[in-house]
Specification:
Metallo-beta-lactamase, Chain A; Rossmann fold; 2 domains; 6-stranded mixed beta sheet; 32% helix; binds MU-OXO-diiron
């Protein structure tokens, strides 16, 4: 697929994988993006997951007209982008891998490849004849070897996973040409709005821990004029770069928008009743919210909205004197992701000895969250008298 005179898209859509990284559901699929920069010499930017190698090689052959590919630029070594490397080397035995020093042992470790590798440093450039590629090191976005590649003549940033999103892409890959989220049934007039939720879920689950490195990368690139972003997942951004960069900037600063993420799990429905009472209070007041039952839903959706909103309300029964396991795991994941700048409220049922609300509050304090109150622990069944969610909602 032609993106410009120099750039071709040769990526693929994956509609078959059910769990990305073995963890995160893909209701809209996912794309693995790879690009050709075609000049006097030809560079391939990243590859695709190995299961798609055959389709991928055909696309490359079509776009190059059978010319050999001279360089493979490896921006990131995670196997969703690197595992067709062996197939590419087999097809183009003379190809030279361009990457940075941190990727070299990973290439050897994953694929046993140690020859024909050229390393580049931050700010270094290579010429393809009539095109120039400049490399920027962006470590820990979200692996140590991550870097980005900039095509100077077209002000195009090949950003690796940064600015990426879950969701396969229907139609043209470019937002400017109406790229669509595969399976999207809502309004089809705005590519960014279609992908926004899956982009937030992708960021919060995959990259969320690395807010500081993302901020460092954004600062490093702030003086570089960017007219096109070619990420390894999702659309190519041309018209909506400002929206995409602003979202990544806000998420990596851990800045939440006004609203409440209600997350709970329940053994016999009493903590669930409290969660739904809070939901009704927020809905009645017009406060934006999302609600997630961890017993019936993958936790990635809860992390998405914990990153999205500025307030988190967490409900857990007391189980073996502790936080109920799915909720404990959710809280641990918030800490792992270094989430900060949040207001927090805990609630939950117990039968003979409480503990979950106190422990949730402790964990929230340890993460630097602002407690809206000491929370609401209630014995046995839920009732508005035992657990006053109207008073809780007043604080939100
Ligand atoms: Fe899409 Fe970090 O790989």
């Amino acid at each position: 697929m032609k993106i410009s005179d120099r750039i071709r898209y040769v990526g693929v859509n994956d509609h078959d994988k059910t769990l990305f990284e073995g963890l995160w559901p893909l209701p809209f699929g996912v794309s693995y993006n790879s690009y050709l920069v075609i000049g006097e010499r030809i560079a391939l930017i990243d590859t695709v997951e190995a299961g798609f190698s055959e389709e991928y090689l055909e696309k490359i052959k079509t776009e190059t007209g059978g010319r050999p590919v001279d360089y493979l630029v490896v921006n990131h070594m995670e196997p969703d982008h690197s595992s067709s490397m062996e197939a590419i080397r087999k097809q183009y035995p003379e190809i030279r891998i361009i990457t940075n020093a941190k990727a070299v042992p990973m290439i050897a470790g994953y694929y046993g490849i140690t020859d024909n590798i050229m390393t580049v440093k931050d700010g270094e450039s290579i010429s393809l004849g009539n095109s120039t590629l400049t490399f920027y090191m962006t470590p820990m976005v979200h692996w140590p070897e991550t870097m980005m590649t900039y095509l100077n003549e077209e002000k195009t940033l090949f950003s690796g996973d940064a600015f990426g999103t879950f969701g396969a892409v229907d139609g043209d890959i470019r937002d400017s040409m109406g790229a669509r989220l595969c399976g999207w049934l809502g309004d089809k007039s705005d590519t960014f709005q279609e992908f926004r939720s899956e982009m937030t879920r992708y960021y919060s689950n995959i990259v969320g821990k690395y807010g500081v490195p993302v901020q460092n990368a954004l600062k490093k690139l702030s003086s570089t004029e960017i007219c096109r972003i070619c990420s390894t997942h999702g659309p190519v951004w041309e018209d909506q770069i400002t929206e995409v960069v602003s979202l990544y900037d806000r998420l990596s600063r851990y800045e939440g928008e006004k609203g409440v993420c209600i997350v709970y799990a329940s053994m016999y429905g009493n903590t669930a009743k409290a969660a739904k009472a809070l939901e009704a209070e927020l809905a009645g007041r017009g406060v934006p919210y999302a609600i997630h039952d961890l017993a019936n839903e993958n936790v990635s959706f809860a992390y998405r909205d914990a990153f999205r909103f500025d307030t988190i309300a967490v409900g857990s029964p007391t189980y073996n004197n502790e936080i109920f396991p799915p909720v404990a795991s959710f809280m641990k994941g918030l800490g792992t992701r270094c989430l900060k700048n949040r207001k927090f409220l805990a609630f939950g049922s117990y039968t003979w000895a409480g503990g979950s609300v106190r422990q949730l509050n402790e964990e929230a304090r340890n993460m630097g969250f602002e407690l809206l109150s000491e929370g609401a622990a209630f014995a046995q069944g839920y009732s508005p008298e035992k657990c006053n969610m109207s008073a809780m909602a007043d604080k939100m």
